[in-house]
What does this fold into?
Amino acid sequence: MGELLSGVEESSKKAGRPIRVGMLGFGVVGSGAYRMLTDNRSAILRKVGTPIEIVKVGVRDQEKPRAVSQDLVTTDLNSIVDDPSIDVILELMGGLDLAGELVERALKNGKHVVTANKELIAKRGAKLVSLAATQGLDLHFEAAVGGGIPLIQPLKHQLAGNEVLKMMGILNGTTNYILTKMTQNHLGFEEALGEAQALGYAEADPSSDVDGFDVQFKLAILSSIAFGHEVLPEAIYRQGIREVAAQDIAYADMLGYVIKLLGIVDALEDGGIVARVHPALIPKAHPLASVSGVYNALWVRGDFVGDLMFSGRGAGSDATGSAVVGDLIDVCRNILLGGAGNTSTYDLPVKTRSIDEVTNAFYVRLIVLDKPMVLSKLATVFGQRGVSLSAMEMRVLDAEKQHGEIVFLVHPCLERDFQQAIEELRSAEFVLKVASWMRVQA
Ligand code: NAP
Ligand code: HSE
It folds into this structure.
């Protein structure tokens, strides 16, 4: 027997049959969703009109203590997706192949699915969404992008009549937490990452966060929904935050900027897109500059609606649990109405263009031989490509060896031209090291 989350409220007597739910995974996200269903059961019953009953919970380690009756816990995940009495599966275990097989099997078995798995939806979403549509079932994944912030549903519904022109956002809680702690508390990278992991923000393999894969997945999902074409992660340029040094954060601050990991997608006139994930300097007055810690934000420009910004907690148990429960409630309402909601299929591939064709300003930090003519040689490398420099900072690192550090901004230019200039600098006799470079987002 499952745990009747509706309790004994008077209203449950009037309710219809309980909706039976099986959970795959009871970690950070699963336990958050369960806690919300338990703590807010009366309000949820009032809003759904029928009780939601968690009847099975699939995990890897049967013996781990959990805030759910041990009677419900099993390591036999197939027994959950094959259980004919279960209406909805919550896939909150993560990973690609096993999770993908279980979601597909659940849909083929006639079950609605809610998932928080951004990797699965980014890589195999088009196929799974089509399967759900064919089966007349819901496949919801609001928690996969932006933690607790409603993003997928507004793009699918309220904004669906717009041509989306551009989206830009901070879409990873772990890296935003790390960069905030490095900036505001002068923490080292590893220490800040350890804190983000302890708070339940990071992926099982945190390189997914730190190296930008997580944002690549999220941007692929958002773009697929916004443009109605399949945007696969590999079509998105990706660069993570490992190279962002404390010196860059300090120089950015001195120049009036903060450093954020951004996901950006621009719609092109030919129907294609250019999409990218990379750290960038943004002016302190920019709306995204004040989005700190685990908070995420997405700025969207639609042709009719204009500019919108969504923000909130982008990771963690409660925020993500809230998104899962929101999706589950939507599914329950659809079940009670006798059908599925809008599944928004996106089968056709999108045309993508390379980041080489994007125009940006840039920040550069070089270690140089501190000798006469260095500045003019530097200006020549960029000047040959019609690009000028600004906001220069210089300091001596070692007077005896004549080693110095130069920091400068490059006025907006084509990515291709900038990269050629950087390559030339790497082999220039006056450059000891290209210590770092980053894009500057206006
Ligand atoms: P987690 O804390 O590691 O929990 C994973 C759960 O799945 C655990 O209960 C684990 O069982 C179970 N599980 C994993 N692999 C399994 C397997 N092979 N067989 C059986 N059970 C298995 O992960 P999480 O942070 O909750 O993340 C879950 C999903 O949500 C991921 O797709 C993640 O990307 C996504 N997500 C996470 C967040 C966040 O803030 N953490 C936010 C949005 C989306 P045990 O408990 O026995 O280990
Ligand atoms: N690891 C992810 C993040 C979880 O830090 O944003 C939320 O998707």
Q: What stands out?
A: DSSP finds 15 helices and 17 strands in the chain. The CA atoms of residues 147 and 320 lie 5 Å apart. The chain has a mean pLDDT of 94.
